[in-house]
Amino acid sequence: MKNNLKVLDGLRGLSAIYVLIHHARLTLTQPYFNGLSKHPEQYQWYDKLMVYFFSLFKFGHEAVIIFFVLSGFLIHFRYAGAQYSFSEFKLKQYLKKRIIRIYPTLIVSFIVCFLTDYIIRITTGDSYPLSQYSLSRFLFNFFLVPESPLWGSNYPVWSLKHEWFFYLMYPLLLWSYHQQRIMPLLLSIALFAAYLFGYKIDYIGAAAYTLSIWLLGAVMATVYHQNERLFNYIPILIVFCVAYPFIARINSNYPWLDLCFGLITTGFIALMIKRNKSLLAKALSSLAWLGTFSYSLYLLHFPILLLFKALAIHYAKNKELPYHLWYVTGSIMIIIPIVYLIYYYTDRIALNYKKRI
């Protein structure tokens, strides 16, 4: 399984890079309908090529769904064996590992976010970012409460709040599974249906349905351990690719969109595990090094991008974002090594400590 985990690390790292590029193209250049579509004369031929190339990176939300499915698989993997008994589950150790995994980088992200917002304030005079800071917002974000307002301008924290909700729900789900195997499925269906039909649970919100997507990974881990024959059929889920483009991208459809893409992701991950000697699996395994700091990259890149955006507009003669995409390319090349250095002196140390627990 060790080689298979390299494939998953590579997929996680590639997804983090994808989200970075997705956000860079949204923050550091003119949007298509205000840029190339309306003012084609502003673009050289190579700028046009770059616009079309970067348009491939418009599915940042889908990359987050990949994170959820991977997380469900990896968290449940060690507990998914047929011989595992819930009496062996050590809640204190589990929570300690989750805290060590999440909080060092989260705290660093608070610092980075405040510093970038403060620099924006003193450089450009824009006070809006600092207006997002309050004690109540900080507490909501520190304790990772879903559906709570952001502290600062680090938008990607929303998915981390969902992830933390999954972590807190997992011991209950694992216990209920060992009482009656169908119970986690029934609970997830109930929460999914409640959200779908407009019943929003305070401070849980959309995490009520994304839990079902996280559980897809957990179910895959169970099947991997307990039914190899059935696991061989999971890649068939990739056929949902046929349906996905036809689901309208409106807010009320997002539970279905995310579930559909979660099924596609589950099928793809199972295929990569099953065909770990394939060229694609080997290519993903070669990117495993990106997976080591993917969490830091995901959580730290956005405030830095917003700083670059504010400076680009402030120092531009026309006070607008550029029509070219060189800032997008440059920001990606700058942010990756910056985040890696932060990871090396923070998250890497925490991960090494976590391994000894």
Low-confidence stretches: none
Total DSSP helices: 15
Write down the secondary-structure element order. Answer: HHHHHHHHHHHHHHH
The secondary structure category is mainly alpha
The overall pLDDT average reads 93
How large is the share of residues in beta strands?
under 5%
Determine the fraction of residues in helical runs and give it as a percent range: 55-70%
Ends distance: 21 Å
Largest sheet: none
What is the CA-atom radius of gyration, in angstroms?
Answer: 21 Å
Apparent shape? globular
Describe it for me?
The chain has 357 residues and is an all-alpha fold. Helix content is 68%, strand content 0%. It has helices at residues 2-27, 45-54, 60-77, 91-124, 135-142, 157-179, 183-196, 207-226, 228-231, 254-274, 279-286, 288-292, 294-315, 326-345, 347-355. The model has no long low-confidence stretch (mean pLDDT 93).
Short recap of the structure:
It contains 15 helices and no strands. It has 357 residues and is mainly alpha-helical.
